[in-house]
Amino acid sequence: MRIAIDHAETRAGLLFRRPLHEVRVTVHFTHEETQIIRQRDLGETVLLERWPADARAEDDPDWYALRVKHLVERKPDRFRCATPGDAKLYEAQLVDALHRLKAWLDVNAEPGGRKVIEI
Q1: Measured between alpha carbons, how far is 76 from 58 in angstroms, rounded to an integer?
Q2: Is 117 part of a structural domain of the chain?
Q3: What is the pLDDT of residues 75-87, one digit of tens each?
Q4: Nearest Cα to Cα of residue 66 among 81, 86, 46
Q5: Which are the contacts of 14, defined by CB distance < 8 A and separation ≥ 6?
C-alpha cells in the first residue's frame, strides 16, 4: 500500500470566499490487498467518521464517512478543514486509520492453519 497525502488551500463560497484547507489522499493498493478487500467485502467498511468544515447541519453524516471503497477507486479523497491545524490533526487521524487497515489486511491475507499446543 502506497499513500500520498497533499495539503492545499482552497476558497469556498460565492460572496465571502473564505479559505479552507484541503487534505487530499490517494492510496495505491497492491493487487493482493485489492483482492483481499474484494473477497472479504470490505468496500462499505468505514475507516473514519468525519465532518468537513463546509458541511451544513442538515447533511447526512454517512455522506462524509471515509469508506474503503473510496480509496480503492484510486481517485484522490478530498476533505476540507477550517484551519491548517485542523488539517494536520485530520492527517494524523487518517494515517492512524490507514495503519489499522493495513494491519487488518495483513492479518486476513491467509486463513489460520492447524496448531498443536502442548500445555
Answers
A1: 26
A2: no
A3: 899 999 999 999 9
A4: 46
A5: none
